[in-house]
Write a structure and sequence with these properties.
The chain is mainly beta. It folds into 4 domains: 103 residues, Immunoglobulin-like (Sandwich); 303 residues, Transglutaminase-like (Coagulation Factor XIII, Chain A, domain 2, Alpha-Beta Complex), CATH 3.90.260; 109 residues, Immunoglobulin-like, CATH 2.60.40.10; 93 residues, Immunoglobulins (Immunoglobulin-like), CATH 2.60.40.10. It contains 10 helices and 36 strands. The longest helix is centred in the middle third of the chain and has 14 residues. The protein is globular and about 105 Å long. Belongs to the transglutaminase superfamily. Transglutaminase family. Its EC number is 2.3.2.13. InterPro entries: Ig-like_fold, Ig_E-set, Papain-like_cys_pep_sf, Transglutaminase, Transglutaminase-like, Transglutaminase-like_sf, Transglutaminase_animal, Transglutaminase_AS.
Length: 664
């Protein structure tokens, strides 16, 4: 938080102008709270709590310590340079000038124009959030547009998200969240505490926080999660209404959380984990129970595997942990499980997760399970005995990614969370997790004996929403024996969280597996089979089990896929000059064999235009919608326009355009 060597000026503001006849001048800072009844005690600032800060004027400024020095004199005015403390609480301060006189202290009147915001400073080496790479500081603090990666591990998709941390009133909205979370004033200089309480207040599950989540495809009296294009509208609506904003899913929680962190000066990035485990009973494994036919028994199976899950990482020191566990910390505002009685998660050290040190706070076991669980396929005998039929050690956490520094590309950071599956290091991390009391059952702990001489896999043909496609199941018999496999195929329409809405396709067949050969079998999926029940992300979950009749062993493979969803086309018309009106045109062609009803378009661009919405009643099939918007860009440089389309039958339709705004 210290101002130091050309630090970014927006992180400490508030010049003081001095009158004549000053003697032993000092500055008084008084913390200003949002007036909540529970904060009434904040009206009486105290020096020992950091809410009353007298700053004496001296000759030398000491790094990381409060102080002031005269740097310019002219007539009856002087200019001061002020150094703030690295342990100062962050927030909005009232700024006063006091003068010692023989008659007592004379102090300036209250003036809101000199109110000063003090934030974390990742440019300062003494700050708890110091980041030593300038390009990373520009990305993780100053960049107000990010990328959300979604889809599935075999078909990674991306969309832009406007963080908007520098937009008007967003800082006040973010500071309000600490009041809403009732974080004590003395803790507001500690990024660990701030992240901990913020991960709870970002969601509304138990504290009436910012965003109400919905995962049931019903969004009455609110906005569908897929329609949001950024954080600003959500934060400002919550700041104004003090009521949860409807609705969000994981990428919305993560996008708003990222805005909060960057706005306060904490370096932050949005993470996507593909095939993310939701461990329902904290045993560090996914339990899928099979019925007599080898199909998943949804009554007994409580764990789930999300196609993807988004969370955040925040950069900070961890003086509460052993040396080496600072740096990136996982924080997650999506309400999944409770932690210390509230729906929150983190901060958990990424390094601790990788090495299996799950004993260190906060919530490391849950995050470890998200990225490194095994899937156990277990059959229930009639006498209640559980027989492990298959174990998949590689499905969970297959790919963990974030946005590239300085570009829109994707960076694979999987190895920051876990060692290569099956390596000596990965086994050591597992043993460490077991040592710390988190039991991840290994193959040796069961009677499981796999079928090693036959492999099974399947591939799904890429297809556009509304078209037919095929699934190809392939067996590879590596032995000299002939086998027959009774095979069950199940196609399910699922929420991206892995929860099934409906099973739309069932197919069984007997496969003859010749020695030392491969065999392939095609299953055709017709659009008429899935369109009526399709959910907003066009997400499917296919599950294939095969029983080798000669040995009784079961092979099991599951995959999530998403169909290709059409995009919005964005183009500009006219010159792009700061301060000069121009136009942007958004186009969309309906590819479905049905009319789209209740169509809503959103368009925004940080530094270019605030969110604009327009309702269109309907778009007939194969028809094209065109929307022209006039706007006046105010900020020169490379900017981005982001648009979304939302309707009853089609969601997750996005478009974006990079534009270069010239100086006038």
């Amino acid at each position: 938080m210290s101002e130091q060597d050309n630090a970014v000026p927006s992180y400490f503001v508030g010049p003081a102008v001095w009158g004549s006849g000053l003697k032993e001048p000092c500055i008084l800072l008084q913390h200003q709270l949002q007036l909540l009844p529970c904060r009434a005690k904040g009206r009486y600032p105290q020096q020992n709590k950091g809410t009353y800060i007298p700053i004496l004027v001296g000759n030398v400024l000491k790094p990381g310590q409060w102080g002031a020095k005269i740097i310019h004199r002219e007539n009856n005015s002087i200019r001061l340079s002020i150094m703030s403390s690295t342990t100062c609480i962050i927030g909005k301060f009232r700024f006063y000038v006091a003068v010692m006189t023989p008659f007592g202290i004379l102090r300036t009147r209250r003036n809101s124009a000199t109110d000063t915001y003090i934030l974390f400073n990742p440019w300062c080496q003494l700050d708890a959030v110091y980041l030593d790479d300038e390009k990373e500081r520009e990305e993780y603090v100053l960049n107000d547009v990010g990328i959300v990666f979604h889809g599935n591990v075999e078909d990674v998709k991306s969309r832009s998200w406007s963080y908007g941390q520098f937009e008007e009133n967003v800082l006040d909205a973010c500071l309000f969240l600490m009041d809403k979370a009732e974080l004590e004033l003395s803790g507001r200089g500690n990024p660990i505490k701030i992240c901990r309480v913020a991960s709870a207040v970002i969601n509304s599950r138990d504290d009436n926080g910012v965003i109400a989540g919905s995962w049931n495809n019903t969004y009455d009296y609110g906005v569908a999660p897929s329609a949001w294009t950024g954080s600003v509208d959500i934060l400002l609506e919550y700041y104004s209404s003090k009521q949860p904003v409807r609705y969000g899913q994981c990428w919305v929680f993560a996008g708003v959380f990222n805005t909060f962190l960057r706005c306060l000066g904490i370096p932050a990035r949005l993470i996507t984990n593909y095939s993310s485990a939701h461990d329902n009973n904290a045993n560090l494994r996914m339990d899928f129970f099979l019925d007599d036919e080898g199909k998943v028994d949804t009554r007994l199976t409580k764990d789930s595997v999300w196609n993807y899950h988004c969370w955040n990482e925040a950069w900070m020191t961890r003086p509460d942990l052993p040396v080496g566990f600072g740096g990136w910390q996982v924080v997650d505002g999506t309400p999944q499980e409770t932690s210390d009685g509230m729906y929150r998660c983190g901060p958990a050290s990424v390094q601790a997760i990788k090495h299996g040190h799950v004993c260190f706070q906060f919530d490391a076991p849950f995050v470890y399970a998200e990225v490194n669980s095994d899937i156990f396929y277990t059959r229930m005998e009639k006498n209640g005995t559980q027989v492990v039929e298959n174990i998949d050690t590689t499905h969970i956490g297959q790919l963990i990614v974030t946005k590239a520094v300085g570009g829109d590309g994707m960076v694979d950071i999987t190895e920051q969370y876990k060692f290569r599956e099956g390596s000596d290091e990965e086994r050591l991390a597992l043993e460490t997790a077991v040592m710390y009391g988190v039991k991840k059952q290994s193959i040796q702990d069961t009677t499981y004996q796999p079928q090693t001489d036959v492999d099974m896999d399947f591939q799904v043909q890429k297809a556009v929403l509304g078209n037919d496609f095929k699934v190809t199941i392939t067996f590879r018999n590596k032995s000299r024996n002939s086998y027959t496999a009774t095979t069950y195929f199940s196609g399910n329409i699922v929420f991206y969280t892995g929860v099934t809405k409906t099973e739309f396709k069932k197919h069984s067949f007997s496969a003859k597996l010749e020695p030392s050969s491969s065999s392939s079998f095609d299953i055709v999926i017709k659009s008429s089979e899935y369109m009526s029940d399709l959910l907003e992300q066009a997400s499917f979950h296919f599950f294939v089990t095969a029983r080798i009749n000669e040995t009784g062993k079961i092979l099991a493979v599951q995959k999530a896929i998403m169909l290709e969803i059409p995009t919005l086309r964005i183009k500009t018309k006219g010159e792009l000059v700061a301060g000069k009106e121009t136009s942007v045109i958004v186009e969309f062609t309906n590819p479905l064999k049905q009319t789209l009803e209740n169509v809503m378009l959103r368009l925004e661009g940080p530094g270019v235009l605030r969110t604009i919405k327009k309702q269109f009643g309907r778009i007939p099939m194969n028809s094209t919608l065109t929307w022209e918007v006039k706007f006046t860009p105010m900020r020169p440089g490379l900017q981005k326009l982001i648009a979304s389309l939302n309707s009853d039958a089609l969601r997750h339709v996005y478009g974006e355009l990079n534009i270069q705004i010239r100086k006038p």
